[in-house]
Amino acid sequence: MSKTIAICNQKGGVGKTTTAINLAACFAVLEKKTLLIDIDPQANASQGVGINETQEEDIYEALVLAENPKEASIERLTEIIKPISTEYKLEYLSILPSSPGLAKLEIELVNAMSRERRLQRVIKTLENNYEYIIIDAPPSLNLLTINTLTAANSVVIPVQCEYFSLQGVAELLNTIKLVQNNLNPNLQIEGALLTMHTRNSLAKQVAEEIRENFPGKVFNAIIPRNVKLAEAPSHGKPVVLYDIQCPGSQAYMKLAEEILETANG
Questions:
Q1: Which of 82, 17, 75 is nearest to 53 (CA)?
Q2: Each residue's pLDDT tens digit, 225-235
Q3: d(Cα 196, Cα 201) in Å, to the nearest integer?
Q4: 37 strand-pairing partners
Q5: End-to-end CA distance of the chain, in Å?
Q6: What is the mean pLDDT of each run of 10 residues along the chain (265 residues)?
Q7: Looking at residue 86, what is its pLDDT?
Q8: In angstroms, rounded to a whole number, what is the distance separating the alpha carbons of residues 164 and 53?
Q9: Which residue stretches of the chain are H helix?
Q10: What are the b/e assignments for 145-167, b being 16+ CB within 10 Å?
Q11: pLDDT tens figures, 107-160
Q12: Among 11, 14, 57, 70, which is disulfide-ready with 168 (CB 3.0 to 4.6 Å)?
């Protein structure tokens, strides 16, 4: 049975998409069959794995099909999923890409039936084909994010090691609680992930506050500020394919191993 992990934080610029791309890639390197779902209309996760052109079909079509579960068949959804370029040798990783057109789905969903469960239906159909499904949520608390949290088994919350990043976490935690109470009682917080970490007193102070807010739920892996990590998306590659030796690659590999270790008890 697969595990679906949402990467969520409504604050932009905290390393959310970077985490989604690189955690999925690290699972694939560890030979876990993984699907990356990009449900952010900015489509940065899609671009970060080399999909720079708008596809004929993407997550928008998958979510429209899911209005009628019979139409969202495994065969039909598989047509929309894209392999990561064979040039990169990541045969265990595929993506359900996004595009700016996804933004209009928000309006279409306002009065729709089961509007919070579209992504859940897509994942239920696909989950037996994958060991891990990683969802890159939008950087806002909207219906697409609610869909993400309703469909996920757990949430990874990237938190930048700067003061302002703490302010949005409480709002996200309230949203997670609402989803747990009304839509997905089994949703768990996988952990808070410290990102863009530098060796200074502010980063240390923020890290301590995050550990107080998430007792026992902060990953040991810490993602550093790293030039290679920042450069990799412009080449359409996860950092493990761009520079496997850099600190960013090593940190995300540690994160993947930490999650696998927890899953295996």
A1: 82
A2: 899 999 999 99
A3: 14
A4: 96, 135
A5: 15
A6: 91 89 96 97 94 90 91 94 77 94 88 89 96 95 93 95 73 92 96 85 80 87 92 92 94 96 79
A7: 58
A8: 34
A9: 16-29, 44-48, 59-65, 74-80, 103-109, 118-126, 143-151, 169-182, 201-213, 227-231, 239-242, 247-263
A10: bbbbbbbbbbbbbbbbbbeebbe
A11: 888 888 789 999 999 999 999 999 999 999 998 888 999 999 999 999 999 998
A12: 11
Closest CA to 8 of 144, 198, 212, 180: 144
Q: With beta carbons less than 8 A apart as the criterion, state whether 236 and 228 touch.
A: no
Instruction: Report phi then psi at 53, rounded to 5.
Output: -105, 150
List, in order, residues 6 or more apart from 177 with CB less than 8 Å away: none
- What would the two tokens of residue 65 be? 């099909």
Tokens of 36: 């990356």
Sheet with 132-136: list strands edge to edge: 82-83, 93-96, 34-38, 132-136, 3-7, 154-160, 188-195
What is the residue type of 159?
V
CB contact at 8 A, 171 and 137: no
CB 78 within 8 A of CB 122: no
DSSP run (H or E) holding 246? none
Q: DSSP for 170-239?
A: HHHHHHHHHHHHHT-TT-EEEEEEEESB-SSHHHHHHHHHHHHHSTT-B-S--PBP-HHHHHGGGGTS-H
Which backbone phi and psi does 188 adopt, to 5 degrees? -120, 155
Which amino acid would we find at residue 244?
A: I
CB 90 within 8 A of CB 240: no
Cα distances (Å, whole numbers) of residue 45 to 37, 81, 158, 221:
8, 14, 15, 21
The pair of three-digit structure tokens given for residue 129, joined into one six-digit string = 């084909």
> Token pair of 176, please?
């997670």
